[in-house]
C-alpha cells in the first residue's frame, strides 16, 4: 500500500472569493503581514499497487473526479508503503 497526498488549488486566473474573505478577515484581526490567501483541497489516498502504474491511476483519478480541470490544478506526492 502506498500513501498519496493530493493537493488541489484554483488556477491563478480563477478568482477565489473564499480566499479573499479569509484574507480580509485576517487583515481585520491585525495580521497585516498576510496579503493573499488561496483556498484549496487536500486529500490522502491509500493506493494498493496493481498491474497499473500508480502515477497513472492517481493522475486519472485527479483529472476525472478529484479536481475540476477547467478551474483547478493538482499535484500529488507518492510516499513509502503504509504498513497496516
From TrEMBL:
GO terms for cellular component: cytoplasm. Belongs to the PurS family. This is Phosphoribosylformylglycinamidine synthase subunit PurS. Transmembrane segments: none annotated. PANTHER family: PHOSPHORIBOSYLFORMYLGLYCINAMIDINE SYNTHASE SUBUNIT PURS. SUPFAM superfamilies: PurS-like (SSF82697). Pfam families: PurS. It catalyses: N(2)-formyl-N(1)-(5-phospho-beta-D-ribosyl)glycinamide + L-glutamine + ATP + H2O = 2-formamido-N(1)-(5-O-phospho-beta-D-ribosyl)acetamidine + L-glutamate + ADP + phosphate + H(+). Keywords: ATP-binding, Cytoplasm, Ligase, Nucleotide-binding, Purine biosynthesis. Pathway: Purine metabolism; IMP biosynthesis via de novo pathway; 5-amino-1-(5-phospho-D-ribosyl)imidazole from N(2)-formyl-N(1)-(5-phospho-D-ribosyl)glycinamide: step 1/2. InterPro entries: PurS (IPR003850), PurS-like_sf (IPR036604). One of its GO terms (biological process) is 'de novo' IMP biosynthetic process. It is found in: Cytoplasm. Part of the phosphoribosylformylglycinamidine synthase complex involved in the purines biosynthetic pathway. Catalyzes the ATP-dependent conversion of formylglycinamide ribonucleotide (FGAR) and glutamine to yield formylglycinamidine ribonucleotide (FGAM) and glutamate. The FGAM synthase complex is composed of three subunits. PurQ produces an ammonia molecule by converting glutamine to glutamate. PurL transfers the ammonia molecule to FGAR to form FGAM in an ATP-dependent manner. It comes from the Bacteria. Its EC number is 6.3.5.3. The gene is purS. Part of the FGAM synthase complex composed of 1 PurL, 1 PurQ and 2 PurS subunits. One of its GO terms (molecular function) is ATP binding. Its main location: cytoplasm.
Amino acid at each position: 500500500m502506498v500513501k498519496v497526498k493530493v493537493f488541489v488549488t484554483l488556477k491563478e486566473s480563477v478568482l477565489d472569493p473564499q480566499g479573499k474573505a479569509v484574507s480580509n478577515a485576517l487583515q481585520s484581526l491585525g495580521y497585516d503581514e498576510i496579503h493573499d490567501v488561496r483556498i484549496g483541497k487536500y486529500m490522502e489516498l491509500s493506493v494498493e499497487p496493481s498491474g497499473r502504474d500508480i502515477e497513472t491511476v492517481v493522475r486519472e483519478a485527479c483529472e476525472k473526479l478529484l479536481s475540476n480541470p477547467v478551474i483547478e490544478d493538482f499535484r500529488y506526492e507518492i510516499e513509502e508503503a503504509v504498513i497496516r
